[in-house]
Design goal:
The protein has helices at residues 2-11, 14-21, 24-55, 61-83. It is mainly alpha-helical. The mean pLDDT is 83. It comes from Rhinopithecus bieti (Black snub-nosed monkey).
Length: 99
């Protein structure tokens, strides 16, 4: 509690904040943060552009791909469930049931 108050008092000091902002580690952390944010923004814009291009392609292309993905996913899920032996995890009750 005392440490929290001391830290809050120090961080509310304009002179200390100014000196910290001029320090090399804080400046480097700010540079890395800005770089990461810019990269994430550029990647998001690129992904949005590719998605728009994909949707603007031949009519129904995106719907067909989504349908194929859904069918393949459900087929693999069913195949995986059929290959399992025994009840699904968590269906047993009582102490030591899942051991």
């Amino acid at each position: 509690m005392v440490l929290r108050r001391l830290l809050a008092a120090l961080l509310h000091s304009p002179q200390l904040v100014e000196r910290l902002s001029e320090s090399r580690p804080i400046r480097r952390a700010a540079q890395l943060t800005a770089f990461a944010l810019l990269q994430a923004q550029l990647r998001g814009q690129d992904a949005a552009r590719r998605l728009q291009d994909l949707a603007a392609g031949p009519a129904g292309s995106l719907c067909r791909r989504a349908g194929r993905f859904r069918d393949a996913f459900t087929q693999e899920l069913r195949r995986g469930l059929r290959g399992r032996s025994g009840p699904p995890p968590g269906s047993q009750r009582g102490p030591g049931a899942n051991i």
